[in-house]
Amino acid sequence: MTGPEFEAALRHKIDSKTKPLGALGHIEDLAAAIARVQGSLAPRMRACQLTIFAGDHGLAREGVSAYPQEVTRQMLLNFLGGNAAANVFARSVGAALRVVDAGVAGPPVTHPDLLSRRLGDGTASSLAGPAMSAEACERALALGRELGADGAWDAVAFGEMGIANTSAAALVAHKLGPLPLEPLVGRGTGLDDPGLARKRAVLARAAARTPPRLFPEAALAEYAGFEMAMMAGAMLGAAAAGRIVLVDGFIAGAVALAALGLDPGVRPALVFAHRSAEPGHAEVLEALGARPLLDLGMRLGEGTGALLAWPLLRAAAAMLNEMASFESAGVSGPA
Amino acid sequence: MTGPEFEAALRHKIDSKTKPLGALGHIEDLAAAIARVQGSLAPRMRACQLTIFAGDHGLAREGVSAYPQEVTRQMLLNFLGGNAAANVFARSVGAALRVVDAGVAGPPVTHPDLLSRRLGDGTASSLAGPAMSAEACERALALGRELGADGAWDAVAFGEMGIANTSAAALVAHKLGPLPLEPLVGRGTGLDDPGLARKRAVLARAAARTPPRLFPEAALAEYAGFEMAMMAGAMLGAAAAGRIVLVDGFIAGAVALAALGLDPGVRPALVFAHRSAEPGHAEVLEALGARPLLDLGMRLGEGTGALLAWPLLRAAAAMLNEMASFESAGVSGPA
């Protein structure tokens, strides 16, 4: 079927289900998005994997986070131990989970379940110069593309761990939008007022180093973490492989801005899972023109918001595949 | 543990999880609500059942719905056939489902999976007099209490099917709040403008029959459907049995107003699953002081919104039960 024929058949299939027109709201939109991404009126939505990318940020040394840098590494071990929030939610909703070391500071963690894609011993501080070289950024994107496309998943979710990465995300979104910096800067893991003032000052100085607007690769190289650049590549790889990409919160949203800058064709694959309580996310969502599925006041990252949207994806596909039509069920239409 | 001790222990358990304070937002509130209802810091949240109550409304003969009355019966058969939206969503999220005939018009449907609790051949038209007798209302509440308490479910969801029941719900909420009638009246399954005008006129006349404010039993007897009165009883029975009650949309919300009027002690058990697109639901939620978990533009009923919140309940309990603490995972707290 060609585009308009497919759209007409899709509309007909949804509207002939035993429910008032449009009565399943955003679930109907979600079902349509899934059908379009798979090019099928009977899309499959059975298997989802969360990949958590972990990396450290030179910016963490500038006092922009409430938590010390070693928490990135400790949380990496917590993910591998199976009992961080992301693990618990993944088990709860029936999603697989894997963890990628994209460049956590310190000696490499060795663990049978850890995928090592280290691009360095954490990034450099973007206060002084680029967080990573152009070559490292290219490599992160390429490795991410591979990771986004491997396996046999109907949907993929991407999470991140990296102390100071709300700072990195604010700077990336600032340069990509471009968006005003101030509303993108929030308390992250829980800065107090003086901490927030310091974060604002540091980020303003870091932002002043470069022109007001940057191309996606440049914004990532100047300000992102390895985990963010790799996630951008993974979004590109997953979308190219015909998968739904569940976009998590503020950091994943900034990464989505970069991925869309690199390839606007990614857009139909992106499902915005939730609205984070980190205030900059509202700015990013507006720039993306995105209306997320959930709004639960969460701001944890790790892909936790993305995971909670997986049952909605499954339900939307099930609606399209399993639900009776007025005709098949012998139900009368409107009088 | 006594109340304050329990609260302190609960707060400590949630706050010692490996996440910034409050970073799981409403999921933390939900976990706390589950713990309180079960009186346990390690609550169980494994099994959920949706009960769909079906009943017909005399008011349907006054032209207040876009669909003919026989659709109630046809949808009952659709539920029994296993492929209505509620069935599809229940399978998708892993909830059980049962269907209760509370008083569908016409000869009784016989089906091995149908629970018959018929209170009549549909209600009388509340335009002319009470929809049901006080005795029938008492009986509906009693049968509902039994149904709410049976089985071994950690959470229960209640759905409804009954052509004209947005009209009945508007009248019940109007008399219980009391709330202004006008904003409670919407398009239901899809009335056009003349249909909506007619619905408004009919409901205003029906409302004028009785005093501006009614006690819960009277509001139910005057205006509810059998399926609604039975659902009110089921909310009472389930809450008394220590279960979480997932409250669906507009009709279930009006029923929750009645249940709370009958026993305010039900409140802690109620989890408001979603915000319906039927505009009266906003009024009811405000009267309830409730902030629902989901806002997906849905307005189907059947318990479909309640079902989509079940994975969130499960995730919240899993967070409390399975997630590592800073201490157990060796993760540093704020610097």
Tell me, briefly, the overall form of chain A: elongated
Specify Rg of chain A, calculated over alpha carbons. 20 Å
Oligomer: homodimer
Secondary-structure element order of chain A, N to C? HHEHHEEHEHHHHEHEHHH
Question: What is the straight-line distance between the termini of chain A?
Answer: 33 Å
Q: What do we call the CATH topology of the largest domain in chain A? A: Rossmann fold
Strand content of chain A: 5-15%
Assigned CATH class of the largest domain in chain A: Alpha Beta
Going by CATH, the homologous superfamily of the largest domain in chain A would be Nicotinate-nucleotide-dimethylbenzimidazole phosphoribosyltransferase (CobT), large domain
Number of strands of chain A: 6
Average pLDDT for all residues of chain A? 97
Give the helix level of chain A as a range of percent.
Answer: 40-55%
Specify the structural class of chain A: alpha/beta
Ranges of chain A where pLDDT stays below 50 over 5 or more residues in a row are none
Describe this structure in words.
2 copies of one chain form a homodimer. Chain A is of the alpha/beta class. Chain A folds into 2 domains: 4-44 and 319-329, Nicotinate-nucleotide-dimethylbenzimidazole phosphoribosyltransferase (CobT), small domain (5,6-Dimethylbenzimidazole Phosphoribosyltransferase, Chain: A, domain 1, Orthogonal Bundle); 48-312, Rossmann fold. Chain A has 13 helices and 6 strands. Chain A has a 6-stranded parallel sheet, sandwiched between helices.
